[in-house]
Amino acid sequence: MDDMYFKRIKRDIGTKLKIQVDQYKDSYILRRISVRMRLCKCKDFKEYYEFLLTNPAEFQKLENTLTVNVTEFWRDRTVYNELKKLFESIVMDKKNRSLKIWSAGCSSGEEPYGLAIIIKDLMEKHNQKYMRVTITATDLDKEILEKAKNGQYISKQLKNMDDITINKYFTKLTSEEYEVKTDVKRIVQFKKHDLINEGPISGMNIVLCRNVIIYFDKQIQEELFMKFHNALIPDGYLVLGKTEMLHGNARNAFKPVNHRERIYQKLDLGKLNADGLKN
């Protein structure tokens, strides 16, 4: 992208919003900026750059557009079916006293709450009363995290759930609004976390980072894969989005459990002797 004003907008995103925009693909930044340009009726980057200079509040709207990830509960049923099988094997093993999950890039909370609901159902089904379940849900966007903590959603976001599940785990607020019940909220802990600049959250059985890393360049992606490797306990699982694939050193650090659904299991780097990987 050679446009001088596009580069100036990127520069200001970095300096004013403290977002490391160079770590994102230009195609992604271009798409997100274009959304705001249309809404502001700016015909080109020069016009939008000048609009930003005279309307400082637009930077906050641009930040929200860059980081937003609109989701719904159990959006991709095939991967959730596979996750349910994985969770069930963990829940059925009475030796397992805890289950720790990291939902990285959790957006407004549909993924971690959706996982909590599946696990609660399985624990009830198998009379597993003593396993402690903790889901750590992280995102860079403070505003979206506050929304997630509230746990309020509209009916179309629950369209993949049946009425029994909705009535069991949600409180109906209005004809179109629902709130996640307290016993589900209790399982999920939300916190602000920068995937690129902060270290991993350790001791996890499972890390989910779905449809997030595609927005980063390949070097950053590989660094993130290895952070997730460090976050996992031995034989822990990493779950990516359908369009995301391991590459570089990370391909030696995980083995595919379900390649189609992008579910991988951690390998012991101490047993590997290639590519200068460190345990």
From TrEMBL:
GO terms for molecular function: protein-glutamate O-methyltransferase activity. GO terms for biological process: methylation. It comes from the Archaea. Its EC number is 2.1.1.80. Residues 1-255 form the CheR-type methyltransferase domain. Keywords: Methyltransferase, S-adenosyl-L-methionine, Transferase. It holds the Pfam family CheR. It catalyses: L-glutamyl-[protein] + S-adenosyl-L-methionine = [protein]-L-glutamate 5-O-methyl ester + S-adenosyl-L-homocysteine. It is an enzyme of class 2 (transferase). This is protein-glutamate O-methyltransferase. It comes from Methanococcus vannielii (strain ATCC 35089 / DSM 1224 / JCM 13029 / OCM 148 / SB). The lineage of its organism: Archaea, Methanobacteriati, Methanobacteriota, Methanomada group, Methanococci.
